[in-house]
Amino acid sequence: MSSIAKRGPWGIWKDVIFALFAREIRVGFNDKLGIGWAIIQPVLFIFILSFLRGRLNGGETHGIPTFVFMAFGMVLIQCFLQTFLAGAKAIKKNKALFAFRQVQPISVVLASGLFELLVKIFVSLGMGLMMYFLDLELQLSDPLSLMFYFFSLWLFSLSLGFIVGLVGLYIPEVDKIQNLMTRPLFFISGVFFSLQDFPQEYWWLLDWNPILHAIELSRYAAYPTYGQVGVSSTYLAMSVLTSTFLCLSIYQAYWKKAISR
Amino acid sequence: MISLVNVTKFYKTSLGNKYIFKDLSFDIPIGHNIAILGSNGAGKSTLFRLLAGSEYPNKGKVHCTLNVSWPVALATGIHPEMTGRENTRFIGRVNGVKDLNRYEDRVKRFAELRNNYELPVRTYSSGMRSRLAFACSIAIDFDVYLIDEVTSVGDAGFKRKAKEALLERSKNANVIMVSHDMRDIRQFCDSAIVLHQGELTFYNDLDEGIRKYQAL
């Protein structure tokens, strides 16, 4: 008979998240394209978009190559959308696993968030490698800030997804609204334009959006010539702190009820 | 000892709260193989899930000093796209099994899956699935095994094997079981808890319990 190790709460947490994470990797890359598709799809998109915008402005957008400009937008918005969706779906998808008392909803959400993070890191590396081989100029002048913005955006997406997932257990209609809400994000988050393209008196229409801040700040961190206007890292950090705090408090208050329904 | 202390459990429905237990206190005695008997909808599965910690009561507490298995039913935690071995490893990790490789082999041998062990679970028959689920739990050293109808799917040979395994474990482990098949229950259990209208009654003698249950 196999005996069980005595584990403290941290030990259990670690084991469970690792087990779930391994399971996500195993199931997530199940089809033949596997992680390849995660890289190919945004790259295709970027090519088309940067081709279009490149025709308009001659290959350079506010002092950075249009391809790089688009690449930052696409990778980051996809990081947001996919992590958000993964976080929102995780609890429902893994409901059967809560039969194991060691598995708590937060571990499930964390594991699928970590999986998305892993995919996005691979996508970013793949993108950088591709640019290197295509001889596209790529400059990263402040990699630390870039990483900080990337992780902030990831945490922001995951905590928003977590909130939506928790609320969705009580109000199933949230699913439909969530689709409606994520669709326009593609257009208002500065993926194929910069805040600098807009006259300053209309900035208030766009600059409430932390994703826009993350994308613009990342471009600036890579290319200081891009210029950082209308966005602030403090705002981004505060949004992340607020959303994380909110999701953890909702979770703390409702998780036992949530899995007992 | 597993004890329920002032447990209230209800489910919200469109017709208001549907109470399964109201302020229930009960000690489940140790050293018995117990069948939980009750009519449909009496709350057998709910009780089961409360004991396992898969769900939490709305009020009150479930105290448990023993190592209790998860409620072993047909599909719990088994992913159809993963192989039998991968599923076993997942369950082993979650439960904190020390030696995963030995655990995997033990489950393979017990469930008699042979090469199918390396195939995705979606290709399994329901008998094979239940054998896998049962083997995953019996291969771990629990003090109490919670078994929900799983044994009813296996064939006669496997049932015999399952019983032998449980008997062998019964020196320091017990089983709590839900099944509608009285033959199954007679095979595995020696006493019964009858669940009726939110009240639990323990019968030391299984036959007495079954008689009371059938008279309900």
Automatic annotation (TrEMBL), chain A:
Cell inner membrane in keyword set: yes
Keywords: Cell inner membrane, Cell membrane, Membrane, Transmembrane, Transmembrane helix, Transport
UniProt cross-references to InterPro entries, sorted A to Z: ABC2_TM, ABC2_TM_bact-type, ABC_2_transport
Keyword set includes Ribonucleoprotein: no
One Pfam short name: ABC2_membrane
Family: Belongs to the ABC-2 integral membrane protein family.
The protein's name: Transport permease protein
Organism: Bowmanella yangjiangensis
From TrEMBL, chain B:
Species, as recorded: Bowmanella yangjiangensis
PROSITE patterns: ABC_TRANSPORTER_1 (PS00211), ABC_TRANSPORTER_2 (PS50893)
Alphabetized UniProt keyword annotations: ATP-binding, Nucleotide-binding, Transport
GO MF annotation: an example: ATP binding
ABC transporter domain sequence ranges: 2-216
Name of the protein this chain belongs to: ABC transporter ATP-binding protein
InterPro entries per record: AAA+_ATPase, ABC_transporter-like_ATP-bd, ABC_transporter-like_CS, ABC_transpr_TagH-like, Bact_Polysacc_Export_ATP-bd, P-loop_NTPase
Family of this protein: Belongs to the ABC transporter superfamily.
